[in-house]
Design brief:
The protein has 9 helices and 2 strands. It is mainly alpha-helical. It has a single domain, classed as Lysozyme, CATH 1.10.530. The chain has a two-stranded parallel sheet. It is globular. The N terminus is likely disordered.
Length: 210
């Protein structure tokens, strides 16, 4: 076993033990979004969409809606337990995914499937192209529509918000064509491997409410 592999294993063990940001983030196999020119109006809208505000506790219009959310949270928590063994960590992650996906008008199971393919639910994952975090956001996005601090892409909510806003943007660019939008997100527009992988992973996170 090489020194690099040993270092990555030690780093991951430290993270699982509750350590801070690793100096040798575990590499992800994901691709990378391609930086494209944005109209000023689009840039402005995206910048407003990623403005970082703490998500509120889930608010529900009635008891049935609240119970539906709690059933979803319980089911997803069991499915995620092998990757995130600590309940509070799972709860905070799932609550934030639920909030940010709905805020961007995205299907939550799609976002979870994308996270599985992009980073396998690793907060500090880094791809060879430099994409960061759960949703493998490229650092250039913080310059284009954020405050320029790409280290914040390792912050859970920031990463999920950027990822969801970017995916929604690509869906709008592709006029609702999910296959093409997923390819654009991965930097492999028009190729089938990545969209098929995300859509296959999505099936694990579907919830019928039963």
């Amino acid at each position: 076993m090489g020194a690099a592999s040993h270092a990555r294993r030690s780093c991951l063990a430290g993270l699982l033990a509750g350590g801070g940001l690793c100096l040798w983030p575990e590499l992800a196999r994901a691709g990378a979004q391609v930086e494209e020119p944005l109209a000023d109006s689009v840039r402005s809208l995206l910048s407003m969409a990623v403005a970082n505000q703490a998500p509120p506790e889930p608010a529900f219009s009635d008891t049935q809606e609240r119970l539906a959310y709690l059933r979803w949270l319980g089911a997803m928590s069991q499915r995620l337990k092998s990757r995130k063994p600590h309940w509070q960590t799972r709860k905070e992650f799932l609550q934030t995914v639920w909030y940010e996906s709905r805020r961007a008008a995205l299907d939550t199971s799609l976002v979870l499937g994308l996270i599985q393919v992009e980073s396998n639910f690793r907060k500090f994952a880094v791809s060879r192209a430099g994409a960061r975090g759960y949703m493998q956001v490229m650092p250039f996005w913080t310059r284009v529509i954020g405050d320029g601090d790409n280290s914040r892409l390792f912050h859970m909510q920031t990463n999920l918000r950027f990822g969801c806003v970017i995916l929604k943007h690509y869906l709008e660019r592709e006029r609702g064509d999910l296959f093409m939008a997923l390819g654009r997100y991965n930097g492999s527009r028009g190729k089938s491997r990545y969209p098929k992988a995300v859509l296959a992973a999505r099936k694990k996170w579907l919830f019928t409410g039963r």
